[in-house]
């Protein structure tokens, strides 16, 4: 991963307006500016990607997902390796992964609880 040296830009603030420094490196934004800047970065990047593919969506929909991703003062991916696997809701898991996999797991777990 390429690191971002924000300090270098701050040292050159005579040449740059440091109020508008931005990076799409979520980890660097988190470590430098904190969780709110990370939230804004993720929303902006997801919104830009969806617009590039012609998906016109309301930015408030993305903000709900991003709030879940950063709720623990960090960030976690929204995939099978992130926090979604720790959710107790079967429907919450199906929203972001292959539904049939979680339906089968849910049925097996339910059958185990019954018998």
TrEMBL record:
Superkingdom of origin organism: Eukaryota
Q: Which InterPro entries match?
A: DNA-dir_RpoC_beta_prime, RNA_pol_Rpb1_5
Enzyme Commission number: 2.7.7.6
- Alphabetical UniProt keywords: DNA-directed RNA polymerase, Nucleotidyltransferase, Transcription, Transferase, Zinc
Q: Where in the numbering of this chain does the RNA polymerase Rpb1 domain appear? A: 7-84
- Keyword Coiled coil included in the entry's annotation: no
Q: Name one Pfam family in it.
A: RNA_pol_Rpb1_5
Q: Which EC class is this protein assigned? A: transferase
Q: Say which family it is in.
A: Belongs to the RNA polymerase beta' chain family.
- Matching PANTHER family, A to Z? DNA-DIRECTED RNA POLYMERASE, DNA-DIRECTED RNA POLYMERASE I SUBUNIT RPA1
Q: What is this protein called?
A: DNA-directed RNA polymerase
Upper taxonomic classification of the species?
Eukaryota, Viridiplantae, Streptophyta, Embryophyta, Tracheophyta
């Amino acid at each position: 991963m390429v690191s971002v040296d924000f300090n270098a830009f701050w040292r050159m603030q005579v040449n740059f307006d440091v109020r508008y420094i931005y990076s799409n490196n979520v980890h660097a934004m988190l470590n430098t500016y904190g969780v709110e800047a990370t939230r804004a970065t993720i929303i902006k990047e997801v919104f830009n990607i969806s617009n590039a593919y012609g998906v016109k969506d309301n930015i408030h929909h993305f903000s709900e997902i991003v709030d879940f991703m950063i709720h623990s003062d960090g960030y976690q991916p929204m995939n099978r390796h992130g926090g979604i696997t720790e959710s107790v809701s079967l429907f919450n898991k199906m929203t972001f992964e292959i539904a049939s996999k979680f339906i089968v797991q849910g049925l097996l777990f339910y059958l185990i609880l019954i018998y």
